[in-house]
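Quick one: structure tokens for this chain, please?
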Amino acid sequence: MSTENINLQLLARPKQKAWHSQLWVQVLIAMVAGVLLGHFAPATGQAMQPFGDAFIKLIRMLIAPIILCTVVLGIAQMNDMSRVGKVALKALISFEILTTIALVLALIVVNLWHPGRGMNINVAALNAGAVKTAVDPTHPHGVVAFFMDIIPATVVGALADGNVLQVLFLSVIFGSALVALGSYGKPLLDVLVVISKVLFGAVNIVMWATPLGAFGAIAFTVGRYGIGSLRSLGNLLICFWVICAIFVFFVLAPLSRAFGIPFFKLMRYLREEIVICFATTSSEVVLPRLLLKLENLGAKASVVGLVIPTGYSFNLTGTCLYLATAAVFLAQATNTPLTVYHQIGLLLVLLLTSKGSAGIAGAAFVVLAATLSTAGTIPVASVALILGIHRLLAEGLVPTNMIGNAICTLIVADSENALDKERMHAVLDGRAGTLSTEDTPLYPSV
């Protein structure tokens, strides 16, 4: 019996778990505990930061090899470079359309909402040094720098640094080379299958620490920024979260339903990943689980393994919403004139800079500063105004990134006849099993 058949048999047996043993419930309980600790004991809450940071580091140490294995296996499973190119082109076109819609939507809403009007911030009075501390001034920005950053200095260096774009670049080259080898590459593919099983098994072990990581991250956020941040910049936070909600429910939801994908059932299916993203403000921590869950839905591993890692670099819709909203807000807060032509120019700059935020610590904030520097219209020093609430804003943009990538992957799979919709509906309706942290993940054999 093949590994794939064994996998489907395991998944075909739904497991009835007690409510308190479900990961998303445990994470929610941990988040409530973190909020209470951060509010009533801010100093203690801030001291919990290492728990959140350690959990994210544990997952990130596995991301690079997982991307390498999944992309190489995905390309090898297609066994046709023309089809690989077709899938990649479809994915990139859909990514560009979605990110453009996100940028336009954010610009429209923030111009109508005016969250920065009346603040009358004096840029000279802001702490520009805080921006220099948060943004590495030695990191080059621009079109040339973006494309040069895709090429790693060494193979090992790309894996060690965990740069998503660099690992993706290497994976496509290695996968293409393996396809060219034909039957000679079969032994290496078998090894990669085993390595991928080990890596996903390691992810399952690390996921046991998810509630503790969520507790530490939320306790730190509330303890550090607390109610004061919500009070002073609450209008921006509410505006941005509303923009994210509009994009998810009035752009992604109709798009999902147009391709026969039940949106709300999919959100319920991905509820653990959404909650984890919200708590940790990192979409990377759910990347391994997302790969498995979408495959379990009936999307072929060859498509999922190629589209998801690519989307994590090029389909950052939540980040686009953040960049457009924050840029216009800063212009409003500092009374910087921003004409329609200025905003069109800003939109064009954001279409490029938003693609380069993968693999950079504090990515969205860094890219925002780089964008303002490139556009030259809004004072770069004004970024200091939102430095204190960036993490609170990230709680909206990160889940949006993840949801957008999940839906986009299913749409690309459906367009390639690589989505078993019968199985998808069976899983979403609870008639077939789903992956859990107790399952031993089995990557389909090549």
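The radius of gyration is 22 Å.
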